[in-house]
């Protein structure tokens, strides 16, 4: 390709080709599965975002639930600051629980629902800029800024069909021509869990990690 190129542009083409070869190497992230993160979790206490669709406001909560993590994948890339990392965490999980919904309708009426929900096996992904520091108690993670505002969690229940049926009663009325019952149904089956606030910290105790996992984190942690 370079043979027929004007000599004036050939050096630029060589530099560009070299950059293309080096870019994947510069951006390559280390990957690790933290074995201790797999297992079952209950009552995680996550705050769910209210669902707003037209005149409907649905406040949702899940006070009782169980999540089983089958596998996880942690990718780390060194950030611009000392001890900072760009982290991408992928989890394969499933679960079940109770979903409580308090619905405020267009006439300010209030309806309470409580349904059993099931989350089929699925993968969720989280990305964030974090600071990793090695402390006497283990490895301290501090959230600098989430790169994804929330995590989508797909669930199945009868709640979505019940509320969608109620929505359709109002959808045919002229005053509610902007009401989108399909969007409401989608919001009830794809639950958005907000990311924690900046400054939130997590500690991983060293006894929870294997030697290879600790060696992996030591390459990124401040104070190692």
Can you put this structure into words, describing what you see?
With 224 residues, the protein is an alpha+beta fold. Helix content is 21%, strand content 45%. It has a domain at 29-40 and 69-94 and 119-218. The protein contains four helices and eleven strands; from the N terminus they run αβββββββββααββα. Strands 1, 2, 3, 4, 5, 6, 7, 8 and 11 form a nine-stranded antiparallel sheet that branches. A two-stranded antiparallel sheet has the order 9-10. A hairpin with a 5-residue loop joins β5 (65-78) and β6. The longest helix is centred in the first third of the chain and has 17 residues, at 10-26.
Write the topology of this structure:
Blueprint: H1 10-26, E1 30-32, E2 39-42, E3 51-53, E4 56-61, E5 65-78, E6 84-104, E7 110-135, E8 138-146, E9 150-154, H2 159-171, H3 181-189, E10 190-194, E11 201-204, H4 211-218
Helix pairs in contact: 2-3
Rg over CA atoms, rounded to whole Å, is: 24 Å
- First-to-last CA distance: 48 Å
Strands, total number: 11
Stretches where pLDDT falls below 50 for ≥5 residues?
1-5, 8-27
Helical amount: 10-25%
Number of helices: 4
**Overall 3D form:** elongated
The overall average pLDDT, rounded, is: 81
Order of helices and strands: HEEEEEEEEEHHEEH
Our estimate of the beta-strand percent is: 35-45%
Strand count, sense and barrel status of the largest sheet are: 9 strands, antiparallel
Structural class: alpha+beta
């Amino acid at each position: 390709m370079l043979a027929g190129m004007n000599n004036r542009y050939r050096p630029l083409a060589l530099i560009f080709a070299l950059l293309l070869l080096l870019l994947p190497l510069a951006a390559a992230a280390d990957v690790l599965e933290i074995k201790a993160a797999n297992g079952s979790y209950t009552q995680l206490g996550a705050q769910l975002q209210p669902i707003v669709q037209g005149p409907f406001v649905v406040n949702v909560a899940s006070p009782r639930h169980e999540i089983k993590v089958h596998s996880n994948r942690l990718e780390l890339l060194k950030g611009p600051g000392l001890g900072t990392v760009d982290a991408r965490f992928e989890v394969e999980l499933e679960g079940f629980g109770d979903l409580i919904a308090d619905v405020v309708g267009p006439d300010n009426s209030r309806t309470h629902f409580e349904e059993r929900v099931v989350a089929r096996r699925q993968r969720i992904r989280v990305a964030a800029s974090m600071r990793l520091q090695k402390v006497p108690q283990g490895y301290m993670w501090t959230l600098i800024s989430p790169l994804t505002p929330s995590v989508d969690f797909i669930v199945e229940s009868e709640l979505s069909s019940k509320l969608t049926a109620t929505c359709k009663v109002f959808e045919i009325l002229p005053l509610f021509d902007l009401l989108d019952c399909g969007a409401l149904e989608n919001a009830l089956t794809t639950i958005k869990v907000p990311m924690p606030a900046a400054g939130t910290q997590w500690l991983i105790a060293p006894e929870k990690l294997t030697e290879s996992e600790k060696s992996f984190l030591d390459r990124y942690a401040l104070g190692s």
